[in-house]
Description:
302 residues; alpha/beta; 2 domains; disordered N terminus
Amino acid sequence: MAMALVAVALLSCGGRRGGDAVRSVYYWSTTLRMDSVKEQFMREHNVSRMYIRYFDVVEDESGRPVPNATLRFVTAVPKGIEVVPVVYIVNSCMRRDISGLAEKIYRRVRQMNETNDVAGVKEIQIDCDWTMRTRTAYYRFLKQLRDMAGKDGIRLSATIRLHQLSQPAPPVDRGVLMMYNTGDFTDLECSKPILDMDDAAPYMSSLASYNLPLASAYPLFSWRILFRGSRYVGIMHADDDLPVLAGDSIVERRVELGDIMRAKDAVSRKRADANGEILLFDMSNQNITRFKPEDYEKIYLR
């Protein structure tokens, strides 16, 4: 009876059980602002790791890769939470002169850690939707960055999109499989562009043999998309983002719990270890209050 009570207590407080996944979140914003809603989510679901977007790398007017949309720390990272800084690189940058880019990114990430009292960083992550055309340059960049970080005992990870599974693995320590953005959100007829296993299934055959340790990321977000007739106009982040004309339509695309669970099961069937760490994208208040607490527990359970 006593053991049963202990088990119930662990379940009710979100404690991590043997065999459970590492519980992580992406924080993808230009402002780090931890409020009571986010803090409660972290506590309730025993989230131990935050992958925080620090800045983007884009092309300036002359085509040089430069930082953009740098994160502003309004509040501190919660105590006891491991931080993985993430840098998003626009793929077109890899077609430019990127000599020295690895050093600049590594130096900037370390400066942001020091300035904002982010201690104990063990990993840096790069997010880039690279293609066959940019693969050679991107992999060379990753190797340079991995060598630099490795000298300080910091590992390097990279996001892995489904269409990249058929390519040789990048030269990093591990990857995060992005189980979302499976369809064409610019197509009015595509009702589930965020996550549809019918679209993802053709890519999954390469998962079992993919030569890289993997974690898996699943989506919580939704899109409001403006169409003019059947023509895509843009994503509406706010009501006044784009001019809405008579006859326009705004459609909402969202992922449901069943979609996430089917994706998670599909990953487990092909490669169970890829669900050894589960990341949710991303931790905005709107996203983390979409489902019931018990639903998030279903997602996080390995």
